[in-house]
Amino acid sequence: MEITFRKATADDAAEVVSYLRAFAAFNKIEDEFTATEESVRTWMFERGAAEAVFEQVDGVDVGVVVYSPRFNPLDGTPGLDLACVYVDEEHRNHGLGRRLFAEAARIAEERGYGWVEWRSLDWNTRTSGLYYVLGAEQLNGWTLFHLANGQLKELAHRE
Hints:
The chain contains five helices and five strands, in the order E-H-H-E-E-E-H-E-H-H. The protein is of the alpha+beta class.
């Protein structure tokens, strides 16, 4: 079994959307999924808001990590924010998820970034176990807040 990685290109927009949809389904948040091939092509590949790397087994894509840079104001360094890490169900339990995280860490290190972060839903204890095995720490005391849609527009136009 040969495991390789390849950087996604604009030609991969449909495949990225497919993985993002599978990620949303796995996390039981399909009702929140609205990404389209056009939005991915525009924001990831034309405007550079995020990047993706596919994991391949014997030349076939079996997983993806989607990430973007983020700046930490506490230590003054950039890092990678992992928006999506997903391995096809039939390829799980073979260390491929761990390898995707390792690839993200390699990318961060190559760029001189100081850290990698991601979020996980509270119910997902199985993947949380993997995160601890990787050496990750849960940031207790921090709560993720999200502002979008109508609330975002309302705040943007508030005086």
